[in-house]
C-alpha cells in the first residue's frame, strides 16, 4: 500500500511537470482520468472531464477518428500518432470554454495495462512547429510556380557533387531560360509571361526523372540538377527539354503564344568543383546560347 502511494505521488509529480494534456480513455472512448496543467486548450476543470465520452466533446467525425485510434492502438497493441486541427468553430465544447483561435495538436495514444482495456492519450499543442514547417517550406519555394527556388537547390547540388566525387560518378546542371520574356511581358502582358513560366515549370516537372531536382532560379529561368548524368547525356536531356518547349504555348486573345528557351549545361569537372562553380559554368553556357541568338543549347565539362 505504501509502495502504491509512493508510485501515485511520483505519477502526480510527473504529470505536474508536463505541459501536455494527458488523458486515460476507456475502450469505448470514455475519459477515466485527465490531467492538464499549462495547456492552452481550455478543457475545463479536470473533474469536469472525467466520465465524459469523446462524443460529448468532439463533433462526430473527430470523435470517430479518435475512437478509431483507440481501437487500433488496442488491437495492434501499439502507439498511434495523428495530427489534428482543433478549430473552436467546429469543436463547440472548446469554444464555449473560451477557445478563440484554432490550434494544431499531436494526439498520441498508447495501450495501457490494466483489468479494463484503456489507452493513455497525450495531446500536445504543435501549432508553433507547424508554423515553422510552413515558413521553411515557403522560403524554399517560388510563389508563382510552386517550384523550389535557388536557396533550396544549392545545398542539394552540393550534396549531389559530394556523392558523385565519393562514388566516382558524375552529375550535370542544366539552366533553362525563357527567351525575350521582357518583350513578351511588354507586348502581350505580364499575365502571359506568368502563364509561360507556369506551363514551363509544370512541363519540366513532368519531364524530369524522379531523382532530378527542379528549381526556379532567377527571374525567367529554371535549373534541373541531373544526378549521374555525364556531359553527353546532359545535352541529350537538354534536347528533350527544347523539343518539349516547342509544343508549349500560353493563350492570349484567342491565339497561342509560343516561346523558346536557351539552355546551358555544366557537368562536374573534378575535385575542385563546387555548387557555386558548377552553377557559374552553367550560367556561362547559357550566356553563350543567348549570344548566339537564343533557342540554343551549350554545354561545358
Ligand atoms: N511574367 C513575369 N515576368 C517576370 C517575372 N519575374 C521577372 N519577370 C520579368 O522577366 C523579364 C526578364 O528580362 P531579361 O532578364 O531582360 O530577360 P529576357 O527579356 O528574357 O531576355 P533574354 O533572357 O536575354 O532572352 C523582366 O522584364 C522581368 O521583369 C514573373 O514572375 N512573371
Distance N terminus to C terminus? 79 Å
Order of adjacent strands in the largest pleated sheet? 6-8-9-7-12-13
Task: Give me the CATH superfamily of the largest domain.
Answer: Reverse transcriptase/Diguanylate cyclase domain
Please give the number of β-strands.
13
Report on the structure:
With 301 residues, this protein is an alpha+beta fold. The chain folds into two domains: 132 residues, 2-Layer Sandwich (Beta-Lactamase); 159 residues, 2-Layer Sandwich (Alpha-Beta Plaits), CATH 3.30.70. It has eleven helices and 13 strands. Strand 1 and strand 2 form a beta hairpin. Helix 8 crosses helix 9. The termini are far apart. The structure holds guanosine-5'-triphosphate (GTP). It catalyses: 2 GTP = 3',3'-c-di-GMP + 2 diphosphate. This is diguanylate cyclase. Its EC number is 2.7.7.65.
How are the elements arranged and paired?
Blueprint: H1 2-17, E1 21-26, E2 31-35, H2 46-49, H3 54-57, H4 60-76, E3 80-86, H5 92-96, E4 103-112, E5 118-125, H6 127-139, E6 148-149, H7 150-166, E7 171-178, H8 181-188, H9 190-207, E8 213-216, E9 221-227, H10 231-245, E10 249-252, E11 255-258, E12 261-267, H11 275-291, E13 297-300
Parallel strand pairs: 6-8, 12-13
Antiparallel strand pairs: 1-2, 1-5, 3-4, 4-5, 7-9, 7-12, 8-9, 10-11
The structure holds guanosine-5'-triphosphate (GTP).
Amino acid at each position: 500500500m505504501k509502495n502504491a502511494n509512493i508510485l501515485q505521488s511520483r505519477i502526480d509529480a510527473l504529470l505536474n511537470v508536463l505541459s501536455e494534456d494527458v488523458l486515460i480513455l476507456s475502450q469505448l472512448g470514455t475519459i477515466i482520468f485527465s490531467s492538464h496543467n499549462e495547456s492552452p486548450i481550455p478543457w475545463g476543470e479536470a473533474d469536469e472531464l472525467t466520465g465524459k465520452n469523446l462524443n460529448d466533446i468532439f463533433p462526430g467525425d473527430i470523435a470517430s477518428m479518435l475512437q478509431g485510434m483507440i481501437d487500433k492502438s488496442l488491437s495492434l497493441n501499439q502507439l498511434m500518432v495523428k495530427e489534428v486541427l482543433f478549430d473552436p468553430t467546429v469543436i463547440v465544447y472548446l469554444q464555449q470554454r473560451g477557445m478563440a483561435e484554432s490550434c494544431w495538436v499531436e494526439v498520441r495514444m498508447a495501450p495501457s495495462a490494466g483489468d479494463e482495456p484503456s489507452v493513455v492519450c497525450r495531446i500536445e499543442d504543435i501549432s508553433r512547429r507547424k508554423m515553422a514547417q510552413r515558413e521553411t517550406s515557403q522560403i524554399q519555394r517560388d510563389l508563382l510556380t510552386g517550384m523550389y527556388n535557388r536557396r533550396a537547390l544549392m545545398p542539394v547540388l552540393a550534396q549531389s557533387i559530394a556523392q558523385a566525387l565519393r562514388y566516382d560518378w558524375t552529375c550535370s546542371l542544366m539552366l533553362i531560360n525563357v527567351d525575350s520574356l521582357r518583350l513578351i511581358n511588354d507586348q502581350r502582358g505580364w499575365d502571359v509571361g506568368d502563364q509561360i513560366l507556369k506551363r514551363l515549370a509544370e512541363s519540366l516537372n513532368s519531364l524530369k526523372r524522379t531523382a532530378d531536382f527542379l528549381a526556379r532560379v532567377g527571374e525567367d529561368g529554371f535549373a534541373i540538377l541531373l544526378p549521374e548524368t555525364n556531359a553527353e547525356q546532359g545535352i541529350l536531356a537538354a534536347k528533350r527539354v527544347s523539343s518539349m518547349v516547342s509544343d508549349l504555348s500560353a493563350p492570349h486573345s484567342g491565339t497561342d503564344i509560343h516561346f523558346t528557351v536557351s539552355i546551358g549545361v555544366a557537368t562536374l569537372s573534378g575535385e575542385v568543383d563546387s555548387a557555386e562553380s558548377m552553377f557559374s559554368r552553367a550560367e556561362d553556357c547559357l550566356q553563350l546560347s543567348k549570344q548566339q541568338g537564343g533557342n540554343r543549347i551549350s554545354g561545358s565539362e
